[in-house]
Amino acid sequence: MSTVVERALPRALTGEETRLLCTHRRWLHAHPELAFRERKTADYVAAELAALGLAPERGLATTGIVATIEGRRPGPAVGLRADMDALPVQERTGAHHASTHAGTMHACGHDGHTAMLLGAARLLAQDRDFAGRVHLVFQPAEENEGGGRVMVEEGLFERYPMEAIYGLHNWPGLPQGHVAVRPGPMMASFDVFEITLRGRGGHAAMPHRVDDVVLAGSALAMSLQTVVSRRLDPAQRGVLSITQVLAGNVWNVLPDVCTLKGTCRAFGAATRDRLESAMREVAAGIAQAHGVDVEVRYERRVPATVNDAGAARLAARCAVDLLGAARVRTEFLPSMAGEDFSFMLERCPGAYLWLGVGEAHAPLHSPHFDFNDAVLADGSRLLAAIAMHALQPKKGP
User: Fold this and answer.
1) Per-residue pLDDT for 1 more than 50?
2) Which of 6, 81, 267, 276 lies at a CB distance of 3.0 to 4.6 Å from 137, suitable for a disulfide?
3) Tell me, what's the pLDDT at 243?
4) What CATH number has the domain spanning 4-186+304-395?
């Protein structure tokens, strides 16, 4: 017997509710907080959830919040996640709601993500026309510090069992109000490396009496660029970028240490393994050729963000129902950027979506970035629609 799922869409937001979303977003933007320090942010979120009649639970990953909305009928559970932390960037937007904390700003739109999940919470809490429960997950420390990993390690899915979890990120370059979601990889893994070359330093006028670690580091920087182009199968996508070269501080001294730092990105475990092993091989060869010692530290920070096929299809259907097929993309290239929602997707099926904020919008992590409030209502309704659709009872023909 086949089954069908009744489509469910949340109501439209009123003008007053849309203005409230903007108020939330701009307050959060003006009060950014870094990883695991999102205390005022968490206080604000918890107060808004309590005003909706919910009982926010705090403490996971220090500043994380989870609130549960019970449907009108028993059933399974799904999760909706938003990130709350800001970046150590000095804001240059000139906005009236600009950051009041010097050197810290919401340069990635997490203020908008948090506001949209608060909007979805309002729609779901007022309607509750679904079978089961929705867990609202407000995550700290997405930027570099692995807050998603910490929430999982501290028992997110044991304390709040769920069949699937969904996340949404704003996306500059995608037309305003358009959605992109695909099965499989959405974003790459994020690894970092530090390679240290050591030798005998000395007078720059007598290079024959020293080990030139700067020359060795320069040769290594060039050789590492062959790792992706010559040591990976062309069908495997990867990135290796050197972002720092540190050596010496005096005009006439050849230093005894040169350090190269950077990042690697990939979509699969095999590619990730090959990048690391090839880097170690190249570094050892260059060190031997130049007569210096080498130490390679390779740290695997965040796995690739990989969507479950069924969850991605469900999210795409909801987006089509809500926004129209012309505003939904399911065929596109994934991004080489990283996202620690991947830790949650490793433990629970789910999907990660992009919501366009404009083709000419300032890029993510720019000091000129400011979330596009025009998409707040669409994002809130889309998150609510995904939860409602996932929790509609299946019926036979």
Assistant:
1) no
2) 81
3) 97
4) 3.40.630.10
